[in-house]
Automatic annotation (TrEMBL):
Name of the protein: Addiction module antitoxin, RelB/DinJ family
GO molecular function: sequence-specific DNA binding
InterPro entries from the UniProt entry: Arc_rbn_hlx_hlx, RelB/DinJ
Organism the protein comes from: Xenorhabdus bovienii str. kraussei Becker Underwood
Lineage top rank: taxon: Bacteria
Gene3D superfamilies associated with the record: Met repressor-like (1.10.1220.10)
Amino acid sequence: METTIRSRVNNDLKDQFETVLQDCGLTVSVALRLFAENVVRNEGLPFEISRKPLVRLCESMCQTE
């Protein structure tokens, strides 16, 4: 059985996303399925998520004061 996943993004992001995927020979649907399969297989995201370095620097400076 298949299901549908919906997401809201702004038009510019969607257009740029589709352009990159088309250059790779992929559709949005295929790319999202590959992403989901990778998350499940690796039990995590296929990229690092971190806060901006400036935020960490400010926090570090505040702790030393």
